[in-house]
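Limitations

Structures in this collection are predictions, not experimental determinations, and the ligand pose is part of the prediction. Treat each record accordingly. The example that follows, with zinc ion as the small molecule, is included so readers can see exactly what is and is not provided: the inputs are given verbatim, and the output is the predicted complex.
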Amino acid sequence: MRHAAGLWWKFDRYELKDGYIVPGKGARLTRYNPWANYWNARDARTRDQQQPAYASLLQLLSQVKTLPLLGTDRLEPDDDSRRAILKWCGEYGLLGLLHHVTQAVYLPGRLVKAPWAAGPVYAEYSRTPTSWRSRFHTGNRPLDAAIGWEAAWAAFSRGTAVDGDEGTVIATTTFGGGDVAPSTIAEPPWAVFFPSLPKDQRRNLAYPPPYDSAFWKLYGEPLGLFLSVAGLLREALEAFLQPKPISVLGIDVVPPLETTPHPPKDKHSDAAISRLHLLTAPVRMTLGSHKQHGLQIVWAAGSLLSAFGAMLCEDLADRRHQRCDECRRVFISNQPNVRFCSKKCLNTATKRTYRHRKQARARKKQR
Ligand SMILES: [Zn+2]
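Predicted complex:
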């Protein structure tokens, strides 16, 4: 699938504020292509360059040391770990956890002073394979086409929220494994990601569209959730690296005739599959055009997390993951049957083998 696409957003600096990872003051927002980094890693010659961004997230996770937070039962990363997390985010951005779980949001209607607005104006944002579709309307009359998107947004954002309208958020999945039900804008999942907003403003704010730069300035991710979702990625990887292969469909991709279509799955593979599906949920198929090859099928990821999920699938399918014989860490290699993750581990193992041989020879001599 050399046809994966999707740009992602990142600020050049992040900071930790009240348990949230948020853009640093005056930080610059840019867009980049996480897949360029991934394909570069696939083509790289040296081991270090072959580690894609998701592998560096897993490595970051293994380095994070937590300390109990005084007066609470919470654990907080120590100073070095915090610095490492913020540095990682400055390189790749946040995971896009809200974008990952949300399918659509209907903002509370707003009363607008304009000749074309007799009643409240509504804004809807819904996810498409590659972006977010935004729509403004007054009940049943669409506004964008009539007065233009910019004018509709300007009027909407200046209006005041209608009393009693709490908005609706449609989520397609949850990280906690709980039920998915429509929620209001002041509830999780939506309300979790805007740490700078006072509670009374959560409902009343005219939220910009989810990929808008104004949106990213408001958006932050709880550190605890960021780390536990990275943990899900690690668990999915570990589960799929078990010796027994896991088939997500429960059947062969090309099933031979006259076989049972659904062999019983064990608990372990059920858990692995549900984690993988959670990670890849927003990945969707569409068409894109290529300079040389014309129209192509493109898999587009709606969040950085789902891009990581897709990359993980790519690497699992191509059997690029290896486990280091020395430190047991999982690493990625373009060559099969590589035994060590680094020169350091190779050296440690070589030295130990040498030492054991020397001791064995010494014992032989004594006899
Ligand atoms: Zn190693």
